[in-house]
Amino acid sequence: MAAAGALRLLVPRGRLLPPRRGLRLSAPAAIQVTVRDALNQALDEELERDERVFLLGEEVAQYDGAYKMGFTGIAVGAAMAGLRPVCEFMTFNFSMQAIDQVINSAAKTCYMSAGTIPVPIVFRGPNGASAGVAAQHSQCFAAWYGHCPGLKVVSPWSSEDAKGLLKASIRDDNPVVMLENELLYGVPFEMSEQAQSKDFVVPIGKAKIEREGTHVTLVAHSRPVGHCLEAASILAKEGVECEVINLRTIRPMDIETVEASVAKTNHLVTVEGGWPQFGVGSEICARIMEGPAFNYLDAPAVRVTGADVPMPYAKILEDNCIPQVKDIIFAVKKTLNI
Amino acid sequence: MRKMLLAALSRVLQGPVAAAGRTGAVSEASRVMVASRNYADFANEATFEIKPCDLHRLEEGPATTAVLTREEGLHYYKTMQTIRRMELKSDQLYKQKIIRGFCHLYDGQEACCVGLEVAIKPTDHVITAYRAHGFTYARGVPVREILAELTGRKGGCAKGKGGSMHMYTKNFYGGNGIVGAQVPLGAGIALACKYFGKNEVCLTLYGDGAANQGQIFETYNMAALWKLPCIFICENNRYGMGTSVERAAASTDYYKRGDFIPGLRVDGMDVLCVREAAKFAAEYCRAGKGPIVMELQTYRYHGHSMSDPGISYRTREEIQEVRSKSDPITLLKDRMINNNLASVEELKEIDVAVRKEIEEAAQFATTDPEPPLEELGNHIYFNEPPFEVRGPNQWIKYKSLSHS
């Protein structure tokens, strides 16, 4: 596999941390790890675990370049032929150019071939608004990719999410779109001992209750999960206990966890960074209507989303296009009629 | 057995000769002579001069002579004839509305897929666009499974889930509907070939229409940079849907369009030319020299698809001229007959056998049941525990299995 070695070196591991080996006499305690480091750990571990895993993408390989449709197609072809590529987009906005390869070549092929050609590929990269990058670089693709059968779509928030979901995605035999968040890369989160292990995997398709509560269910994915927890702390001082659900996976969505929560709290607020129309919140509301939780709602479900405009540049405008903590609190109070 | 058959045949022929009198006697007599020939009378092989390829950035090209053994000739003939008849049967079934949707037929281009297949190994890889039935057969899928896929039955090679443009088998990645998308995929397969280090190559096919697409140039660039064992093959049949190459491309030298990638322009109507060129190209890639481009000059008798009669942008005379002067099957047949590699009767027997196979396959394809409704939800994912898939409303659910 000399060629394999040479090819893997095309994607230098300079960005990756050295493996966390060394002598330890007792189990490590929980530590603070940034999302970026957690992702790199996951990549490092999975590259070592399976020789077929390799990285390619924009600014990942040795040369500068952004040949989007080309390299995305190459990644998908490599997956069809038995490799397990991790294809990185500099941001998911660029994936729009390559979206034909993601949907028509990756997502649909297993079905069209009646299982003859699986496509074990991961597409990852920052998704949604960043800071001051304006309209063409701020779109959230959760709804676009979440729409398509054949794909799995995950959206991590914490470092544990990032590491566990990336490992699960790489090990999954299906095309997975992993929507990261640029503003979270540098944020440290506590990583438990368990999460530091080489086999720590977060299951795809299972939401996590980040905070338990009784008065209202807040459902979010990615960065807004943090905003929901902040809102929950503030509201707790006023006697409102929010249950905060971190979706973790957009598709297949764990609606059962949301339903169980709504059955308990009787109120639902969805929070997302993407545009309101045809979004993740729309899907959650529709499914709640269709399922048993509808009977438990004491008020209509409410959505908190990005503003329905292309993202402006000026800071004051941008800040008001993204759901803020105050917007979540306002929505909670509205739905609780307080 | 053969001697008896031929002897019987000659007796039958002698009858009319006697009755017709002297005039037809010479030709009849020579026919009798041919009929009573047996195995030992055929040549084992013959050598043919083939048209040299135009070269781009190459000092030497493929061989300009080709040796064809009797066995090879019969195999190529049978394969091309099977594809020809299969495509004509598809035409018929489409007009009877038993095949629906897309149907892009390959008749006229048989020398391409057959010449390519016999030049490479089963362990090599092939990917093409939507005019894929010939390749599907050449790569090993039986005719009955191809026709049953076209008619949307459960015995189809994709269980009826793919249709005309989505047929696959081991080391054959379709069948791709989006113009040009298969080219980066092919380079990706070539990347896997290089990665696994098993000396395999990938044939990545596209048409003269797709040749102007941006993603193809992105792919040329990366394939060359990474020296991928990718043979880019442009099947230039002169028309991208209804647009002639002159109206579509600033440069119609498709074999040069790879610029920094060496290229060959090949007579795609001659199965031996295609074979020798493909052998040359495969050797080039296996030697680690990187990608290479091949342009196969070929022709399709049908329109772009079954919705295109194919005569609004080209003349019937042009089609007829290609049929009479350059038909790939006739070319091979004449070579074999004239060089004593086979007899007319022998080839006719093959025709009969092929027709029979196609008829039986069509029979299967029209009587096999459609896939059961349960199949609707299957194969969304691979290697996944069963889960539920939503139907047209929230109460209709299908189970999704990875294996069925």
Shape of chain B: globular
Poorly predicted runs of chain B: 15-35
Mean pLDDT of chain B: 92
- Main sheet of chain B? 6 strands, mixed
- Described by the principal axes of the CA atoms, the overall outline of chain A is globular
Query: What class would the helix/strand composition of chain B place it in?
Result: alpha/beta
What is the name of the CATH superfamily of the largest domain in chain B? Thiamin diphosphate (ThDP)-binding fold, Pyr/PP domains
Number of helices of chain B: 13
Most extensive contact = A-B, 49 and 52 residues
Strand content of chain A: 15-25%
Give the averaged pLDDT of chain A, no decimals. 91
- Low-confidence regions of chain A: 9-22
From the helix content, strand content and strand pairing of chain A, which structural class follows?
alpha/beta
Strand order of the largest sheet of chain B: 2-9-10-6-5-4
Report the strand count of chain A.
13
Taken in chain order, the helices and strands of chain B follow as: HHEEEHHEHHHEHEEEHEHEHHHEE
Domain Transketolase-like pyrimidine-binding (chain A): 33-187
InterPro entries (chain A): PDHB_mito-type, THDP-binding, Transketo_C/PFOR_II, Transketolase-like_Pyr-bd, Transketolase_C
Cofactor (chain A): thiamine diphosphate
Catalytic activity (chain A): N(6)-[(R)-lipoyl]-L-lysyl-[protein] + pyruvate + H(+) = N(6)-[(R)-S(8)-acetyldihydrolipoyl]-L-lysyl-[protein] + CO2
